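#struct-pred
JK: can someone run the complex with pyridoxal-5'-phosphate? inputs below
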Amino acid sequence: MQNRGYYDQYGGAFLPEVLIATVEELVATFEKAKQDPSFWKEYADIMSEYSCRPTPVTFAENLSNYFGGGRIFVKREDLNHTGAHKANNVMGQGLLVKRMGKTRVIAETGAGQHGMATATMAAKFGFKCTIYMGEVDVQRQRPNVFWMERLGAEVVPVKEGTRILKDAINEALRDWVTNMDNTHYVLGTACGPHPFPEMVSYFQSIIGQEARRQMLEREKKLPDRIYACVGGGSNALGIFKAFLDDPVELVGVEAAGRGLESGEHAVRLASPDASVGVAQGYKTYFLQDDDGQMKETHSVAAGLDYVGVSPILAQFKDSGRVRFEAATDQEVVDALSLTIQKEGLIPALESAHAFAQAFKEAPKLSKTEIILINQSGRGDKDIFTVADAFNDPTWQEFIKKKAEEYNA
Ligand SMILES: *Cc1c(COP(=O)(O)O)cnc(C)c1O
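RT: done, structure tokens with the ligand placed:
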């Protein structure tokens, strides 16, 4: 599969020999679907009936007035079923699974959000579903595990290694190698071997297609700047893709965690800390040490806490088409707080990175300029994480009381 799925030097498909045939089948199914106009229609129809698409664009009038600069609009991916843009990707892959005639899906998940979305898709389409999750993450993410099991998925706690996401990825790959005849591996972001970066961003591109049309309809012009948070890169590519040929500035915002100088962050593109390498089936910028060992990353937002990044975004970094910035945990919690109070919107901690960077820049823009922020998900479903981030003492009291009730 040389040269396919390369974005300059990034991307590729570095796979064990046994998986080549099954990945080729996926590539062929995807290519055929892309050329079939009825496929995108089937996809858009199911997303409208099942996941509230098209999601609206909301004018954030109070925030715009507060900063007194550019006018701020928000693309509402939080209104998707299961609360984030992840639904766009998993439902799209579900349709491909049907086309391939497979009956079982597997996925790995860290924070549990992608596992939740995959288990939901499997329930809807009638697939068997196994979710691999590091044992540490299973303990940290009980609410998501609870829902995945209710949805009929088998959640397998991975006890190997450090018992977190990367160990779950290894386990999922092992399963795929053994069961590829009937099983599809649902990758959660625009990373990994070809065709996943292209395929995931293809399904997510529905975000930008809608937003472009909606802005032209409402404002008779395109936004001047678009902000999106960057974990693996799927929501960012999803909103950016429709604007690549337009004079629109695209800004990807990574997780600066406790600050770049602290070393506790997940900034791969907006800092010199990451370097190019091959891991997990593809070539991109990774946060790794001199021996190529992956480093520990940190972010208040679990969905941004990842060592690699989409090879497509790596190319856009080099070409300069996308500007990359980073926001710290503290800036993110402040931006989230302000957004809740001024607009009654509750972005996910991940999405709040995009808000934080937009807020830094909004005052410098003129009132005729337009800012569009991608609200990739909603924060109210993450009450455990958000309440921890806010350090709310009455919440901690409530949790303690609950625990005592169970002990009694
Ligand atoms: C998973 C997640 C992300 C990060 O993933 P990308 O592939 O970078 O989009 C961002 N926001 C939310 C709400 C998420 O659940």
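RT: quick notes.
The first strand starts at residue 6 and ends at 7.
The chain has two domains: 6-48+85-200, 52-83+205-389.
JK: thanks, will look after standup
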